Every structure is written in C-alpha cells, then in structure tokens.
Amino acid sequence: MNICQSTHVLSIAVLIPLYNHGQTIRSVVERALQWTSFVFVVDDGSTDDGIERLSGCAVRILHCPHRGKGAAILAGARLAQRLGASHIITLDADGQHYPEDIPLFMHTIAEDPSAFVVGSRDFSVAHVPTSSRFGRAFSTFWMRVQTGLSVDDMQSGFRCYPLEALRTLSLTEQGYAFEIEVLVRAAWAGYGIRTIPVRVFYPPQAERVSHFHCLRDNWVISLLNTRLTIRAMLPIPFRGHAASSEALSLTKPLATLKRLRRDVEPITLAKSTAWALCLATLPFFGLQTLLVLLAIGWFSLHRVTALLVLPLTWPPFVPGLAILLGFRLRHGTWLTEFSLTTLGYQIGERLLDWIVGSFVLAPILALAGGLFVFLCARLCKQ
Fold it and tell me: Does CATH place domain 2-233 in 3.90.550.10?
C-alpha cells in the first residue's frame, strides 16, 4: 500500500529501452507491471520480433530510429514527463535486472526525490563477464577523479532519473556512454547521487545477448572520460553551483579571494591551497593535476581554489627552487654554476636533486601557502 501511494504521489514510470531482445522483453515487462501500470518500452529501431511479443501487454510503446541507448532513454523521458511522470526507473530488456527490485528505488525516491539513484549490481553471482568487472572499476575511478564522488556501479542500467533534474543537464552522448556522462554532469550540477544494492542475473556466455561493442563503445567511453577529465581540470565553477566564474583569476588575487570568501570558509580555502601546493610540488611529473583532482574528492577540498593555485608550481620557479634545495641537502653547498655541464650533461644528477628537494619543499610551501591564504581570507572577512 505504501509503495502504491508513493508511486501515485511521485508519478514514477518504468522505462525499458529495447533493441533486439525479443526473447526476454515480455517477461521483463510483465514483471515490471506487477509494481506499476506506468511502464514504457522505447523501441530503439529493433529488427527482431520483440515488439510483436508485447501484444496484449498494458504497456506504452515508443518507436525511435536506432540511435543508441542514451537517445532512447532521453526520448522516453520526454514522453514520460509530458504524460505527468516525475521520475523514471530504467532497466534493461535482456533480463539482467530483477524488476522485483523496483520497490527499492521507490522507497529511495520517496526519501530523496531530487537524487539520481543507481542500482549497484551484485557481482558475487555466477557468469559475471570480466569486461563488466573491469568496466565498473574503470568508470568508478574516473568518476572519483572528475567529481570527487565514489559511485559503486557507473555502468548499471538499473537506475532512477528525476526528470526535472535530467532536463536541466547538457548531455552529448547517445549510446552506452550516456549512462556515465549523465552521472558526472549531475554531480557537477549539485544533484545527489545515491546507490542501492540490486540483484543481477547473467546467463552463461553462450546464451548471452549483448549489443555492447567492445572496441567501439570502449573507445567512445574513453574519449568521453578524456573530455570530462579535461573539464574537471579547469578552475571554473560548474554550472549549477553557488560559485560563479566572476573574478576568479590569479592575475587578480585579491578580487578572487574576496569572491571565493563569500562562498567558502577560510579554513577550507587554506586546506585546499595547502594540499594543491604540496601535491603539485612533488616530483610526479605529469600526474600532479590528477593527484590534486583525487585529493579534492578524498579530502573535500574546494575544487576551484585547488586548481587555481596549480600554476604557481609550474616551471621554472618551484622546480628550480627544488633543485637548488636538493643540491644543498646532498652536497652541503649551493649550486652556483648554471651551464651546459651542470644542467645538460649532469641532468641525471639534477633530476635526483629535484626529487630530493621536492619532498622537502612540498610541505614547506603547503604550510606557508595555506597559512597565507587563511590569514588573507580572515582579513577579507573583517
């Protein structure tokens, strides 16, 4: 009774994208209809007899040209919203998901109507493909880099979308990569992302029907992750967050600090500055920005502040200072000769100086930079 009431108030629809899964679609639909009569099947240009197998089912059918799973979900979402739905629960047509778990989503939606809810698949069952295990770990890592959030199962198709929130996101992907992009952009926009455990069924490989193309779709997902990671590296607030990009520039430090101070506490600004300076000074060439992005999520840093201070550690000043300090620590004197011999032929020695000096310089810069920003932020407040 409570589930029915929740469904009625929130107008939750079940949406099943379909592409050539005629053998399983009727069973999936009939089991979903046990929990709600608001069920859509979006036919993504199927060429088998799947739609004909739904004859007699009380289900709404939307026909679309074959453009991909993401395009089918968005088309179904627009139709569901026009018909009064506030949320859609999507599940795959291949029988992988258990429609009997739909009530888990309904309860979670009732608790947090604005959140995106992802069903984390139980991979302790038999016949789980190795590619699925790898894909889940791979996507979870990049989600952490791009947003700071840890989502257990980025590639699960069993999930819930709040339609009003979905409508506000600028999405580009139409295939399988859509399910990754939508969660990243939802997190950037400030929407909550919740995960719940769900069951999953994988038939033996000989009986499995999958339309995921290993090379093509993984290539598309890799390109998407590249674009999203580059965007995450830019020290510009995301659309939907309280901060704006106005006056955020190292060329206007006081104006930038005042702008950030209106939204962030001094201790958070200081902590973000210190971690960014420390990690970017360490001798992990080419990985400093990635480490800072990971730290933003792990330590709840202010993303814009951390990324803004990164250029302060770029060559030549900070690496050069690290080399001088490393030389002093190793040889007891300062490096005073800068020539082809000391900087060219002895590059291996200077590299060792840089490594030694960086590990000593990093905490010093972090402490000094964090303290400076904290005091300046306090002065701005006063």
Answer: yes
